[in-house]
DNA sequence: GCTTGCCTTCTCATTGATGAGAAGGTTTCA
DNA sequence: TGAAACCTTCTCATCAATGAGAAGGCAAGC
């Protein structure tokens, strides 16, 4: 598919899809006329990129971890692909992500607890 | 305490503490000479702001939810404080945070699963 | 063939979170 | 009194992600 269709199907502006390519997050083929040509899987890939960006990861981090985020296919499973430095990077990124998860979960719970408490107070007061 | 001490104790540059004040996330008192004066609780507050910023929330969102993130004290518990619009805002923010948590958890799990798979492959291969 | 719509690249602008420095007032301590 | 360490405000710069437009090539339909 071309960039317009990918944009429509993901809701991400074509401008941004070109930017993600510039950042090496996407690597579309090119048609003979120079148009970008994306495989079907690009839809999922773009959604994944958006989710990670919205979660506060930078394109730099996403670029480095995205090869390992796909469904487990045997291509990446060969230990040879994984230098010790890369393994460390992945472990530390997982830890940083975990910190974010904890912080966000904690604060989500506080918001919900507040709402629940107000609800209970309303009930109790018979309003 | 003054801005320098707060900066040292939180590891956040004084420049940023002034910025958070500009963004209405902090409201220090002023000494007679004009110096900012922070209460002890500001240390915790700053850490909370940092965690949320690092998790990808904007100062705008943080400003709107931060009054409800404190330990439950009865000050905020009066339902009168909570207009229906504000309750909706809080619910939707909680939902958005939840989405981030899910996205991040999913990808953290994939990274860890990848690492585990490689580890298992190494063991199996007797390397 | 011309119009319309989609594509290309390039460039300029903006926004939010930061870094950094200047110029000057205050406190402390020797 | 003078130096050192703090504080103030103001300003300019940067970086990542994004918006937006110009200028022009390609393609499908009337």
Automatic annotation (TrEMBL), chains A, B:
Residues 1-68 form the HTH merR-type domain. Pfam families: MerR_1. Keywords: DNA-binding. PROSITE patterns: HTH_MERR_2 (PS50937). It comes from the Bacteria. GO terms for molecular function: DNA binding; DNA-binding transcription factor activity. PANTHER family: HTH MERR-TYPE DOMAIN-CONTAINING PROTEIN, REDOX-CYCLING DRUG-SENSING TRANSCRIPTIONAL ACTIVATOR SOXR. This is DNA-binding transcriptional regulator, MerR family.
